[in-house]
Structure formats: structure tokens, C-alpha cells
Write a sequence for this structure.
């Protein structure tokens, strides 16, 4: 893959324009485009931290991460951000602030986004793909092959688990 997620040590070094369209069984398509960090914030806040100010949806490293939006028609319904972060060889990719509009959850759009992101990381040579998952979402991620690591922990009073998938 040109641009995107180069291998080992510079997993997120460039910001290529990426676009992919998934056709759902009902012939509804989700188009995934690279977007800016600013474009992710409203949906991040509405889904993940609605009781907090929008600033709570920003994370350190947003300015250098790759951000993706899933569009249904012209509407942004899903966002996710990838950060170069970790792995024993420095080739790990961390997913953060993955959010799908509640009106579109359970329809496969979040799965399409996750499959797309993992494929991008794998094609670029990333060694592993990891994130902190809310306990309520464990089943979703387990269906995609992710496993829990370590012990349960809390963020802002909510239970989380570290999850990962080896890509090598």
C-alpha cells in the first residue's frame, strides 16, 4: 500500500488519502474516507462521552494520528483513529475513539470499519493491533478475533479491558 501505515517504527508516518466502499447485503454502502481529527470530535463526544465537554473527546497525539470516517450517503456515521503505539518491535497500531452513531449500530457498519482498519494495518506491516475496549463491547471485538490482555480497569468510572490481535 502506498502511504497509510508503513511498517515498523513509522507505522503512522504518512497521511495518504484512503477510501473504500463496503456494500452491505441490503445494498447500502458505507464509504470509508480519511478525515481530520476535528471531523471526528462531534461523533466521538455524542457516542462515547455525551455528558462531558467536547474537549474530553480529544486525545494526545490526535494531530499525528490517522482518522477515518464511515459515511452513509453524505452522513458521517462512524469514526475511528489509529495511532502508532507500541508492540515489542515498535510496529503496533492502537485504535482509539471508535464510535458509531447509535441509530446505525447493530447493522454491520462498525464491523466494516474495524475490518477495514485491521486490513490497512496488516497490509502496511504492523505487528499488532490493540485498544482499550469498554466491557460492554467485548463480544463485538471477540467476534473479530481480538482477545483480552491483563486485568479489568476503569476510565471515568467505566470498566475497560485491553484487547489485541497479532497481525504477523
Amino acid at each position: 500500500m502506498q502511504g497509510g501505515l508503513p511498517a515498523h517504527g513509522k507505522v503512522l508516518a504518512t497521511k495518504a488519502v484512503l477510501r473504500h466502499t463496503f456494500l452491505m447485503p441490503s445494498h447500502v454502502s458505507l464509504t470509508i474516507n480519511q478525515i481530520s481529527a476535528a471531523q471526528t470530535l462531534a461523533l466521538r463526544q455524542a457516542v462515547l462521552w455525551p455528558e462531558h465537554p467536547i474537549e474530553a473527546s480529544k486525545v494526545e497525539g490526535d494531530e499525528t494520528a490517522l482518522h477515518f470516517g464511515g459515511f452513509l450517503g453524505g452522513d458521517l456515521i462512524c469514526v475511528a483513529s489509529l495511532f502508532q503505539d507500541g508492540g515489542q518491535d515498535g510496529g503496533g497500531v492502537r485504535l482509539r475513539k471508535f464510535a458509531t452513531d447509535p441509530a446505525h449500530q447493530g447493522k454491520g457498519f462498525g464491523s466494516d470499519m474495524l475490518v477495514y482498519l485491521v486490513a490497512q494495518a496488516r497490509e502496511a506491516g504492523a505487528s499488532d493491533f490493540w485498544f482499550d475496549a469498554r466491557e460492554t463491547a467485548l463480544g463485538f471485538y471477540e467476534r473479530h478475533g481480538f482477545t483480552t490482555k491483563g486485568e479489568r480497569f476503569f476510565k471515568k468510572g467505566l470498566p475497560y479491558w485491553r484487547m489485541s490481535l497479532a497481525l504477523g
About this structure: The beta strands are 19-23, 29-35, 66-72, 75-84, 92-100, 128-134, 147-155, 158-166. The chain is about 20% helix and 40% strand. Residues 109-123 form the longest helix (15 residues). Helices lie at 37-48, 109-123, 138-142.
